[in-house]
Amino acid sequence: MISNSYEPPVFTDEHRLEKLKNVLPAIEELFQNEFTINHFPGLIYGIVVDGQIFSSRSFGYIDVEQKVPPTTKSLFRIASMTKSVTAMAIVKLRDDGKLRLDDPIGRYIPEVTITDELTTDGPIITIRHLLIQDAGMPEDDPWGDRQLALPEEEFLKLLKTGITLSNPPGTIWEYTNLAYAMLGRIITVVSEISYQKYIKREILDPLGMTNTFWEYSDAPSELLVNGYRWECEHYLKEIPLPDGSFGAMGGLISSIEDFSKYVSFHLQAWPARNEPEYGPLRRSSLREMHHPWNFIKLEMYPHRPCPVTSAYCYGLFWSKNHDGVVSIDHSGGLPGFGSNWVMLPEHGIGLISFANSTYADLGHINTNIIDQLIKLADLQPRKLPISKILAERKEQLINLLLKTNWKMSDSELSMIFAENFFIDTSLELRKATFEELLNQIGQIVAIEELTPKNQLRGAFHIKGENGSIRVSFNLSPESLPLIQQIKLKKVDQ
């Protein structure tokens, strides 16, 4: 049964977009500084808000010799930003009943041979292990990047010859491009067409990403971006890498305009709500992609006072800072290019940036800048409306605590409190505890608004002359939720 009364979190700041607009000059200046100090030949960024590009700016050139500036249609190699697209294809095949995430990879790639499984108690490597990067394979960025154009038959030969593990499978996160190349092979086997064609047909085309390509020869030459590396105080042009069997880990070519559609599709998955679906995946499957499945580490950033916890999702990174702000992102890097996209699901914004410089570290740049964006614009996350049952229980509590002084019949109390409530703590002790707190805060001057944690949990303050009482309460999971717990705490002014 689906509730028609559920209200999802909403933005309550009517000046939200105006605040964002006011800080755009400061954000542009931050990117300008990064462009200059990092010697990027060209740089472009786009801010995505509520399903569209809210702002975009560019610096430098996509062709240094011809001095051609970047535009939102300019085509950059987005490298490992491709991984979440590959993961999305796997999840779609799962949703369509074509595979299971816990299927052994050998079912689809019988050519795979592990040279040394390291331990006798390891699990069979599954599709899920590949998705969340704990298949036991080593970090392989330098090697993996140069395999991009590897032909399919050579890739299968590589797998058959043997893969060496760095860790027992299922024990620790380690970033591996090979895992996502293998996912590409699984897509090809299951769909019976190349992973490139499957992703274009099932993901790119439905999202209207008609300006996103796998191969340079398929893209409009006038939009293609030249990649460079900064060496000995000069820009040296990188040779473009063709597409191949490793493209599923990092081969896509896209633009700010096109990729913003992909970011918008991810953003619209939040919050969970009762609305029609659109696009290649259900919102619940997208949120599954965003879930922190595999813990990575606590990490310090120079601009942050406390560590940030991070985890790997399906082709995406998840992080949460000390303010409780959750971000989802992924970077990309190849010879000639660096990229990153990051989104804040609870704030409804995303940031994409591309540079045509070898392994440009736009991940740290975007992280810093989106933190500044939140701070400067004082952006607040969506707020959850108060559920009807939570509001009703609050009023009953106020009546009980402040008006009737706990004087109710047993039958009346049983309509408010769950079976455990007075068994856990007696009525007499609860009454005495509350009276003591009331004496400490003095005369009551206000009862503040309830702050919901979810549909069945919330807190409010009873404000007195000398302090406040924080009243937090949880409801039971019964068909008619009753109060199962109350916590009372004095809060000084």
Q: What is the strand tally?
A: 19
Q: How much helical structure, as a percent, in the residues?
A: 25-40%
Which strand-content bin applies to the residues? 15-25%
Rg calc: 27 Å
Which whole number gives the mean pLDDT? 95
Roughly how many Å apart are the termini?
A: 45 Å
Major sheet: arrangement of strands: 2-1-14-13-12-11-10-9
User: What structural category characterises the helix and strand content?
Assistant: alpha+beta
Shape: globular
The total of helices stands at: 15
Main β-sheet, in a few words?
Answer: 8 strands, antiparallel
Oligomer: single chain
Would you kindly provide a written description of the structure presented here, covering whatever features stand out?
With about 500 residues, the protein is an alpha+beta fold. Helix content is about 30%, strand content about 20%. It is built from 15 helices and 19 strands. Strands 2-1-14-13-12-11-10-9 form an eight-stranded antiparallel β-sheet, sandwiched between helices. A hairpin with a 2-residue loop joins strand 16 and strand 17. Helix 1 runs antiparallel to helix 11 (about 360-375), helix 2 (about 85-95) runs parallel beside helix 6 and helix 2 packs across helix 7. The mean pLDDT is about 95.
